[in-house]
Amino acid sequence: MKITWLGHSAFHLETATAKILIDPFFTGNPAFDEATRKDAAAGLTHILLTHGHGDHVGDTIKLAQETGATVLANADLAAWLGKKGVSKLDMGNTGGTVHFDGFSATFTQALHSSAQVTEDGTSHSLGSANGLVLHFEDEPTVYHMGDTDIFSDMALIRELHEPEIGLMPIGDRFTMGGAVAALACQRYFGFETVIPCHYASFPIVDQTADKFVAGMEGAQAKVAVATVGKGLSF
C-alpha cells in the first residue's frame, strides 16, 4: 500500500486493486501541490468522503465526472451530490459497512458538524460527520478519523477494527489539537503508524505537527510526518 498526503485532510491510497481519494480538497487548499493533481486522478476508482464541509468534499464533483470514480458518502451527502451531477454513488451511515472489490469502508462516529451554505445563502445539512475505517485484503487497516475531537468510544473502534494506520487531525480550532490527538492515540489505539493531518493549510490552524510529535514521545506508534505529494509505503 502507498499512502500520499495531499494537504489538509486529503489522502491518496493506492493498493493492488484500488486507487482511492479521501476528502479530495484540492482547489483552494494552499498546502496542495497542483503538480500532483494529474497523478492523484490517474486511474482513480473511488472517492470517499468523511463529511460535507467544503474543505473535505473539495473537488469531488469534478473528479467524479472526469474519472467515473465511485463516490462513497453518508446518505444525506450522497443525495446532495447526486443532485449536483455525480452519477456513481454509494451511500452509508454511522456504523454501516460498504463492500467494494478488494476493500470495505465502515462509517464511524466523529465529533464534528457537516453542512454547506450555497450561493443563495441557504444552509444545507449534509448528514453526520464520520470517520472511515478501511479494511483491505492483504493490506493494513486504515482509519481516517475525519474531523473530530477525542471521544472515549475510540476504544470501541479499536476493539472492533484494530486499525494499524491512523490518519489523524491535529490542527486545533476545528478539530482536536496535537496534545489531545496524542492522548487519543496513546489511550485508545494501538496504531503501528500515525500520519497527522488537518494542519499547515490555513493560518488559523496549527502550522506544524510539533505538539503532536511531542505528545507522542515514548509512544508505541510511529509518527510519520508526511510531505505533501510524497508517498509512504506500507
Account of the 3D structure:
Strands 6-5-4-3-2-1-16 form a 7-stranded mixed beta sheet, covered by helices on one side. It has a 7-stranded mixed beta sheet with strand order 7-8-11-12-13-14-15, covered by helices on one side. Strands 9-10 form a two-stranded antiparallel ribbon. It is globular, with a radius of gyration of 16 Å. With 234 residues, the chain is an alpha/beta fold. It has 7 helices and 16 strands. It has helices spanning 37-41, 54-57, 60-67, 75-83, 154-161, 178-188, 210-215; strands spanning 2-5, 11-14, 19-22, 46-48, 70-74, 89-92, 97-100, 103-109, 115-117, 123-125, 130-136, 142-144, 165-169, 193-197, 222-223, 231-233. The longest helix is centred in the C-terminal third of the chain and has 11 residues, at 178-188. A hairpin with a 5-residue loop joins strand 11 and strand 12 (142-144). The protein has a single domain (2-227), classed as 4-Layer Sandwich (Metallo-beta-lactamase, Chain A), CATH 3.60.15.10.
